[in-house]
Design a protein that fits this description.
Elements: H1 2-21, H2 28-39, E1 59-67, E2 70-78, E3 85-93, E4 99-108, E5 111-114, H3 117-123, H4 138-141, E6 145-151, E7 157-164, H5 167-172, E8 181-188, E9 195-201, E10 207-213
Antiparallel strand pairs: 1-2, 1-10, 2-3, 3-4, 4-5, 6-7, 7-8, 8-9, 9-10
Length: 214
C-alpha cells in the first residue's frame, strides 16, 4: 500500500511539474513571433521623435553598459511630440552604485546635446541607441543560432537567447568584426504596455542592455 501511495505521489508531482513548466508558449516559433513582432516596432527607428508614432502617450529609452569596471547608464524620456526628449547620462561605481559623473542630455530635431561634451564622448562614444542602427523582426530572429529560451507560466516572464556574429552590433560596440556574442531578448506578460529589452553579453563578462518602454 505504501509503495502505491509513494508511486502515486511521484506521478502526481510529475504531472504538476509538467503542467507548470511545459507550455506551447515556450516554443521557439511562439517566442520569436511574440518578441520579433514587438521589437520590430522600434528596431529600427533612426529619429527618436518618431517613437511617438508607436507610443503617442510618451516613452522611455534606457541603455546600460560596463566600462572600466563601472556602469554607464543613459535614460531619456519623451513626454510630448514636438518637445525635447530629455534625460541623463550617468557613470556609477559598480559596487557602491555611487554616481561619479552625471551629464544632462537633450535630443531635439535629430541631434543630441550634452551639458559636458567631453564626458559624453568618453562615456557614450556611440552617441546613439542600438535601435537607431539595426533592424530586428521575427523573420530575422528565425535565422539566428538558438542558444536557449524560456517562458515562465507562473510570472509571465519570457526570453530567448542566441549565439551570433553580427557585424552591425560589433561595430556599434567597437568589438572585433569576427567576435561572437550572446544576443538576448526579454519581456513579461505582467507589463500591460510595451516593455522589451535587448541584451548583449560575451564570454569575458561584458554586459550591455537597451530597453524601450511606455
Amino acid at each position: 500500500m505504501r509503495k502505491k501511495i509513494f508511486l502515486g505521489s511521484i506521478l502526481f508531482l510529475g504531472v504538476v511539474i509538467f503542467f507548470f513548466t511545459w507550455s506551447p508558449r515556450n516554443s521557439r516559433a511562439y517566442l520569436e513571433n511574440r518578441i520579433g513582432t514587438e521589437v520590430s516596432r522600434v528596431y529600427p527607428t533612426q529619429n527618436l521623435e518618431d517613437l511617438f508614432e508607436q507610443f503617442p502617450n510618451g516613452f522611455i529609452v534606457y541603455q546600460a553598459h560596463l566600462m572600466n569596471g563601472n556602469i554607464v547608464k543613459i535614460k531619456l524620456t519623451g513626454t510630448e511630440k514636438g518637445a525635447p526628449i530629455k534625460g541623463e547620462l550617468i557613470e556609477a561605481e559598480r559596487k557602491s552604485g555611487e554616481n561619479t559623473r552625471v551629464v544632462s542630455v537633450e535630443y531635439y530635431n535629430g541631434k543630441y546635446t550634452f551639458s559636458d561634451e567631453k564626458a559624453a564622448n568618453e562615456l557614450w562614444p556611440q552617441q546613439s541607441f542600438l535601435f537607431q542602427k539595426i533592424t530586428l523582426n521575427k523573420d530575422f530572429l528565425s535565422t539566428l543560432k538558438l542558444k536557449e529560451k524560456h517562458y515562465n507560466s507562473m510570472n509571465g516572464s519570457f526570453g530567448i537567447n542566441y549565439d551570433v556574429n553580427l557585424p552591425e552590433i560589433n561595430e556599434y560596440l567597437s568589438f572585433p568584426t569576427s567576435k561572437t556574442i550572446e544576443l538576448s531578448f526579454g519581456g513579461s506578460n505582467s507589463n500591460k504596455n510595451y516593455y522589451y529589452s535587448v541584451v548583449v553579453e560575451d564570454k569575458d563578462g561584458y554586459y550591455f542592455r537597451e530597453t524601450v518602454y511606455e
